[in-house]
Specification:
By secondary structure, this protein is α/β, with parallel strands linked by helices. Helix content is about 40%, strand content about 20%. It is built from 16 helices and ten strands. The structure holds S-adenosylmethionine.
C-alpha cells in the first residue's frame, strides 16, 4: 500500500513508523514540506535485509530491469506501461511454457506417489487463487476446454491481459506452446475469443470475490503460503467448491529468498520475530496447520511431498519454538502438493 501526502509533518512520519515500519521517500522536490511524499508499506529494515536479494537480481536481470522493478515496487512510478514492459522482459514469469510445465511436473510427481487421477478441464468451472500478473493457468484451462475460469489475485491488474502487446507478446506464445507449435493464426483467433469470453480475472482475494459460483477445479501455484488469515480463507474457499471438486495447490514452505538455504531466517527465530523483521510476505504455517484449516471446513485433503531438504535443515541452528512443535520431516519439507483426498484412486 502506498499513501501519498501533499505535505508531510514529523507527526505523519512518527505515526506511520509506529503503525508498521513504513519508510519515507521523496517523490518530487527535495524538501519534505514542498514535495509530494509517499509512505511505502515496507520497512526500511526489511529493504536493507533484502539488499542481497536485490544485488543478485541486478546481476541476473541487468541494471535497466532492476531499476524499473525498484521504481515499481517502491511505488515511485508504477504505470501500466512500465508493468507491461517489466512482465514481458521477465523470463521467469513470461516464459510461455512455464505454467504448462509446472502442471505437467506436479501431475507426474503425483502419479509417482499413487494412482493419480489426471486433472480433466473439459467442461469444468475452474478457480485459480493467486494466479499472478500473467493470468496463471487461465490460458491452459481454456485451451483444455474449461467451461469457465476465474483467476483471483489482489495484486493483479485484470485489464493488463487484454493489452494488445501482451496478447501478441505472451498469449500467442502460450497458445503456440499448448498446441505444440501446431496452432495457426486462425486457431489462435478462435482461442483468443474463447479466452476473452470464458476467462475472468479479479483483483481480489477469495474472501471478497463477488460471486456465488461454485467451482469444480481449484488450483494455486505458490500462493497458499502467502495468505494471511488462513482459517477465514479456507472457510470462504470451501463455500466456493462444488460437491466432488478437485484441488491442486503447490505450497512452498521456504523463505522465498535463498534457494541454497531455503529455511534460513525462518527456523532461526519464532514466527512473530520473523514477521516483525521481514514483514508478512509468508504466513509461516506448516503443512499441519494448513491441512487442519481445510479439514475443519469439511475439505478432505492429502499432502504429496515434492522436495524435502533435510541437509539444509541440519545446517541451521533451529530455534526451540520450532522443534517443540514440529518433527524433522515437517520442518524439512520445502515444497508439497496439497490435493483433495479423492485425487488418488
Ligand atoms: C509467489 S506469487 C505466485 C503467483 C503465480 N501463482 C505464479 O506461479 O507465478 C503469490 C501470489 O499470491 C497472491 N496472493 C497473496 N495473497 C492472496 C490472497 N489472499 N488471495 C489470492 N491471492 C493472493 C499474490 O498477489 C501473488 O501474486
Amino acid at each position: 500500500m502506498t499513501r501519498s501526502f501533499p505535505s508531510l509533518t514529523p507527526k505523519h512520519v512518527i505515526n506511520a513508523l509506529k503503525r508498521g515500519g513504513f519508510y519515507v521517500h521523496h517523490v518530487k522536490g527535495s524538501h519534505c514540506t514542498n514535495g509530494r511524499i509517499r509512505l511505502v508499506s515496507q520497512s526500511l529494515l526489511s529493504q536493507v535485509l533484502n539488499l542481497g536479494v536485490r544485488l543478485r537480481a541486478a546481476r541476473r536481470f541487468g541494471v535497466v530491469r532492476t531499476g524499473v522493478r525498484l521504481l515499481r515496487k517502491t511505488g515511485v512510478l508504477d504505470t501500466r506501461a512500465l508493468r507491461r514492459w517489466d512482465l514481458l522482459h521477465d523470463d521467469g514469469v513470461s516464459r510461455p511454457q512455464r505454467m504448462r510445465t509446472f502442471l505437467q511436473y506436479y501431475e507426474a510427481r503425483a502419479s509417482e506417489s499413487g494412482s493419480w487421477a489426471p486433472l480433466d478441464f473439459e467442461g469444468k468451472r475452474v478457480l485459480e487463487i493467486g494466479c499472478g500478473p500473467l493470468g496463471g493457468w487461465g490460458p491452459l484451462a481454456i485451451e483444455r476446454g474449461a467451461a469457465d475460469y476465474v483467476g483471483v489475485d489482489p495484486g493483479m491488474d485484470p485489464d493488463l491481459l487484454g493489452d494488445p502487446a501482451l496478447v501478441r507478446g505472451y498469449l500467442r506464445a502460450v497458445f503456440a506452446d499448448l498446441r505444440a507449435g501446431d496452432g495457426t493464426d486462425a486457431d489462435f483467433e478462435v482461442f483468443r475469443k474463447q479466452f476473452a469470453d470464458r476467462a475472468r480475472y479479479a483483483a481480489a482475494s477469495i474472501q471478497n470475490l463477488d460471486t456465488s459460483e461454485r467451482f469444480d477445479l481449484v488450483l494455486s501455484n505458490s500462493c497458499l503460503e502467502h495468505i494471511n488469515g488462513f482459517d477465514d480463507f479456507a472457510a470462504h474457499l470451501a463455500r466456493r467448491m462444488a460437491t466432488g471438486a478437485r484441488m491442486l495447490h503447490l505450497v512452498n514452505f521456504s523463505n522465498h529468498r535463498d534457494k541454497a538455504s531455503p529455511f534460513s531466517s525462518i527456523y532461526e527465530m519464532p514466527p512473530d520475530v520473523y514477521h516483525k523483521r521481514f514483514g508478512r510476505h509468508i504466513n509461516l504455517l506448516r503443512a499441519r496447520e494448513m491441512g487442519a484449516a481445510f479439514e475443519h471446513c469439511g475439505l478432505a485433503i492429502q499432502w504429496i511431498p515434492l522436495d524435502v531438504q533435510t541437509d539444509a535443515l541440519s545446517r541451521l541452528s533451529v530455534d526451540p519454538w520450532w522443534t517443540a512443535r514440529y518433527d524433522t520431516d515437517t520442518l524439512a519439507l520445502r515444497t508439497a502438493l496439497l490435493v483433495d483426498s479423492g485425487s488418488t484412486r
